[in-house]
Description:
The chain is about 20% helix and about 30% strand. The radius of gyration is 31 Å and the shape is elongated. The two termini are about 30 Å apart. Strands 7-4-6-5-9-8 form a six-stranded mixed beta sheet. The protein has about 425 residues and is α+β, with helices and mostly antiparallel strands.
Amino acid sequence: xxxxxxxxxxxxxxxxxxxxxxxxxxxxxxxxxxxxxxxxxxxxxxxxxxxxxxxxxxxxxxxxxxxxxxxxxxxxxxxxxxxxxxxxxxxxxxxxxxxxxxxxxxxxxxxxxxxxxxxxxxxxxxxxxxxxxxxxxxxxxxxxxxxxxxxxxxxxxxxxxxxxxxxxxxxxxxxxxxxxxxxxxxxxxxxxxxxxxxxxxxxxxxxxxxxxxxxxxxxxxxxxxxxxxxxxxxxxxxxxxxxxxxxxxxxxxxxxxxxxxxxxxxxxxxxxxxxxxxxxxxxxxxxxxxxxxxxxxxxxxxxxxxxxxxxxxxxxxxxxxxxxxxxxxxxxxxxxxxxxxxxxxxxxxxxxxxxxxxxxxxxxxxxxxxxxxxxxxxxxxxxxxxxxxxxxxxxxxxxxxxxxxxxxxxxxxxxx
Length: 416
């Protein structure tokens, strides 16, 4: 059997970056750029005020003037009426354009009105004159970024702040690696849809709901295909539909039982097996293969996940999320594990390396991890509060409280 690390290597070799598309900026959140972008403008595009106050000439203040007439007002979005002359001041609001001749903005709080109400012009008295220096409360043109400077690189993930920068620059349709379409098919005669009442011997199809949620969190677009019974023709029909997508996630039917028909049906559909079975617990039966399309040079990446819910959840986090990340433009050669400190002593015994569900959290400046109570791969409710997998070696081992261990955060390939 393959190790988990060997399975990662095979996935990294098999899954390349997906096609690139131009999307409206509002639809590109979380996607990776497929181009580098330089700023087409200076930001800010003009000198502007950092706050509400009064535009002044520092030379006036240093000459001893403290009482100045307010001869104009500049609002954000409007132009100064004229250059600022000697011995006068303009009221200016936050974000408004600085008039020519002004080299400082005195905060409103440093001034008081000293003319009678309704007098024209209004007159103010300026305090704290010793603190008024050239450049006070001014944001000069290009302070944030200059035209031609790199604002985003190819491969960068678009987050809210970077989307705001692109919006400021008028980049309305960036070139990105598009989201993969991921078909989800659950198999098994015992399954019914979640809105149905199971008959004796039946269970609801919880895996499909879970996988669709995981796919969305990984950046993919889930395409639910429903349930296929353990019958070769029905399976082949559903699987053929799923092979039209970029990925196909199958749940159940990949072990070695009489009705574990998935590997043979996939072979009948010309899906090439890359690996089957991994030395891990839970998730040992995991299957991965590729269906190439000679006409379009595209391919469908097929994962057969175990039907037991925790096995399916962990297998997705270990393998499918990694594959989707590669398709979306990620270049990590494998998922990134992070060190965390155990919150309590634990003992573990298994014939295979185990990815034990656990809960990861920050405390006192470090990551800490607590294994969840877990009875086995059937026990989905036991891991509902988990957010990571704790990596444990094969054999028998013990760790004291405070020991450092390696964990794989769920919903993340970088860091917790």
